[in-house]
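Forum: Protein Structure Q&A
Topic: Joint prediction for protein chains with partners

I've read a bunch of threads here and the consensus seems to be that you should model interacting components together rather than docking separate models afterwards. I'd like to see that in practice. Below is the full input, 1032 residues plus whatever partners are listed. Could one of the regulars post the assembled result?
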Amino acid sequence: MTKTNAGRFFEDYRVGDVIRHAVPRTVSGGERALYHALYPARHALHSSDDFARACGLAASPLDDLIAFHTVFGKTVPDVSLNAVANLGYAEGRWLEPVWPGDTLRAESEVIGIKQNSNGTSGNVYVRTRGLNQRDVPVLEYVRWVMVRKRDAASPAPDEVVPRLDRVVLPDALVIPDGLDFSDYDFTLAGEPHRWGDYQVGEVIDHVDAVTVEEAEHMLATRLWQNTAKVHFDATFREDGKRLIYGGHVISLARALSFNGLANAQLIVALNAGAHANPCFAGDTVRAWSEVLDRAPTNAPGVGAVRLRLVAHKGPPGDLTLKREDGRYAPHVLLDLDYWALMPL
Amino acid sequence: MTKTNAGRFFEDYRVGDVIRHAVPRTVSGGERALYHALYPARHALHSSDDFARACGLAASPLDDLIAFHTVFGKTVPDVSLNAVANLGYAEGRWLEPVWPGDTLRAESEVIGIKQNSNGTSGNVYVRTRGLNQRDVPVLEYVRWVMVRKRDAASPAPDEVVPRLDRVVLPDALVIPDGLDFSDYDFTLAGEPHRWGDYQVGEVIDHVDAVTVEEAEHMLATRLWQNTAKVHFDATFREDGKRLIYGGHVISLARALSFNGLANAQLIVALNAGAHANPCFAGDTVRAWSEVLDRAPTNAPGVGAVRLRLVAHKGPPGDLTLKREDGRYAPHVLLDLDYWALMPL
Amino acid sequence: MTKTNAGRFFEDYRVGDVIRHAVPRTVSGGERALYHALYPARHALHSSDDFARACGLAASPLDDLIAFHTVFGKTVPDVSLNAVANLGYAEGRWLEPVWPGDTLRAESEVIGIKQNSNGTSGNVYVRTRGLNQRDVPVLEYVRWVMVRKRDAASPAPDEVVPRLDRVVLPDALVIPDGLDFSDYDFTLAGEPHRWGDYQVGEVIDHVDAVTVEEAEHMLATRLWQNTAKVHFDATFREDGKRLIYGGHVISLARALSFNGLANAQLIVALNAGAHANPCFAGDTVRAWSEVLDRAPTNAPGVGAVRLRLVAHKGPPGDLTLKREDGRYAPHVLLDLDYWALMPL
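Posted by a regular:
Agreed with the consensus. Here's the joint model:
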């Protein structure tokens, strides 16, 4: 019985430790097809090899969130198996497209640690990198989680809280080699709106909605080899509910955002993110976006747009984000801050 | 909020307009595997590269209905987002096999328009073509839908109702290049019945049944990038039900028809089709077929058979199609008229 | 109506008959991705091409159970469509890895037959072989099932009960060509435990659990083109339940066993197996293993371990296998006896 992995507890992390996560994964056209079955994903660059070639790429890369979920899933047994909460993301950047046939693995460095005042848990900060079969980083991001202590009596470690950028600066965005939106086909992409048409402060209600089923979120979460019990085992929580993986909500919201942001083709940075409230099967998920910033890039025809993406389970058109006390409204599921690339 | 696509209304169609639909799609072995997971599909030509090669093809093409659903899905945002009903199909022909790696896009020409007497909606007729990455047409069909008017007070357009063939003539059927059933292996295909064994008027009850789940029809419908809200959003209809995409029922019925029609390997024409009654999760779907016609072809060993394929949610063996008043019996879901190719 | 396959009855089997099963199947990266979505499968050799190459293989073969299910599914219409019970397995051996792009077909020889004392059914023993597109056997196993008689009055056949080995001897295990665990990366594989760390008699509770949904087991069972009505048709059983394909439980349990047996990379033999009790949607499946034996092999760095794999739907930590009367405890779903390969 001692051969199973009970996961790490708060005491098991030391700042500077580098964890090589297990189970590398080769991804292919199968993962791409499943992504389209699981999410209403329609961004043309991730749907069509020909569209991607017309944008200067060798073929259609796998969805940016396939890369994210695959890397994230690898970290779960080492980082969040005993996590009480997934607290935040920062400094996320996509560094290289992932192509069918690539093999991904992940490493995390512990960059911060801070015991909570109640003495039973603490926050752990890790910087995770996904690498392909040539050891080229494809993705990196910081995540911090609240992890249970094994023993409340164990002494508190020295506190290290990393200084994290609130936003990835436009100069730090990595544009895929060769990307060129000069001859972008807006009709094939599905919408006429270009970079210049989006104004900072503009809010877009994405109109569509998806009611989530147990089978769907479990298929998705397993696909990323994410093993957290709470997503799969209806006997794990006292209320008999299976908590939906937060990344499932990210992908749902991003896919729903096609309607109004069809040309926000590639995600290149994750500035911040909060899973505001839990999502369960039966919830009907909607999404809206707010334009937070815009920046030019060096790539031909390519602009960057910074977006807030909010997922909620409220009625259509309810764009409330926070309550009067500053906390998230109870129907809000996700508040994500990211950079995407659009045609000028 | 004006950036989202509200879909076209009846007033937005003009006869002669050609709509280039958005979001081209590269299909692969992933879509093939999902098709086998979603439907009990067993026709050998779409299951085995080796079987297909023994029939003169380069490899196993993707299921004919994968081509249909992919093309159909592209048309939804432009044709049927505000449709009240999907009224009919005609003059459908498969023109070229779709291979893994192909990229499909779709175009539709408006060929007819007719306001309804109540003034709040009208019928729109479109001829849709699916094209591959070499701009070769892979599929064409006529579909007509009832679409809401934006404004009941807007004037009725000049009425144009296209003359449509009630059936695709055998001479117009397109046989895939190289198809040769001379050395057909009936054992591997699963049944001994050949073209000559099917008599016009013969009825085959396909015996098997599938009880449909919400997760399944949503996975399937999303896979074809079909975005109609009514399939995904449990809050959209007043009764809280998600309407199952009619094409899901077509694929279920076609797959169930293997049992008795295992050698009807390829669909080459869609003569007509009616979604007689809505299908919802929890329904148990059964199918039966009637042989409507037979015709020789020029390809070696290949005959064509015209079939009526009926899906229903009634008890086993209930082959009732219509009520005394000529309307479809309430348990009938689908009445499809198509041509398939069989070994002589 | 006579064109549909009613399946074989007990009277239809003769010892020595060889049945060529229908519908060959080409498997690809799509099936691999679906396997990861359907089961929490994480064994690195089936997840990563690079990991497999570091173990001497050309690429990552498809999961051994993909091969098993695909071959098994082909036999259903000929062997178990009218089966009352799936009674046992023996002498199962994996003979050659299955690679993406391979086409599998199956043949079964009837090797035994024995009417039951009640005269209404009998046991049929078949030796099934799966073959790839080069007619190389990839898998063979013996299975016996209880099959209904068409007519209780038909005479009993001469009884032939094959002598079956209770366990595949270590010398008979087939190691994939080139397999070499000399440079095995235990960190990437996920656990440090090597062949020498497992003691005969040791029991490992795999801790994780999965609550099963209807959509999931139907997707899986269809993927293997297994057509038994009882898995898909909620009107088939009087209690309105869909019986979950026993192989689905095998794959669930094997995937759950990663936690404690991450290095048991390849299944090479199936010694015995019993589906102790039926599994239905809503059940939460757990698994535990017992080490039954160990043996060296001729391949560099590779040892064989014989394992009992038990799946159950009881509470966490309930490792009861049998009741006092020697029958399986009611919460036990599966009792499987197999050989796997591990690094020394």
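The radius of gyration of chain A is 20 Å.
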